Task: structure prediction
Amino acid sequence: MINIRNATIEDVDIIIFFIKELAFYEKEAESVILKREDIIKYGFGDTPIFKVLIAEYFNNPVGFAFYFFTYSTWLGKPVLHLEDLFILPEYRKKGIAKKLMKELAKIAIDNDCCRFQWQVLDWNQLAINFYNSLNAKPLKEWITYRLDRQGLLELAKSNF
Result:
């Protein structure tokens, strides 16, 4: 009844739907400005930079995992980075997220990854509890920094 599969270009609309649903859940719905052509270009174009798993429950798409690979310079191996994991609320607690995480772990192993990492919002206790149940460990000593588009433009034009 639960099936995990690789997304195809035919899944672009459901991927966008899940991204928007996740943004709504995270109280950031207005932040989603991506376009359909962006998903096609960067996920299914000549040089894809991300991949997506689709979770199906009785053949209906009910969630996704959006991921890509980075690299550990210290360990000299790839790292699987999970950007987004989302299951529609009415399908949670059915083992779907665990199946997605298990599939991602297999993908990491198949790609010789030295680790599998992701971030979680500090207020999302349900997700934190879920990740703890997988024996994942939070990295409390690391702080995430971000430059938004305006910050990138300013830094690129700076005179130092």
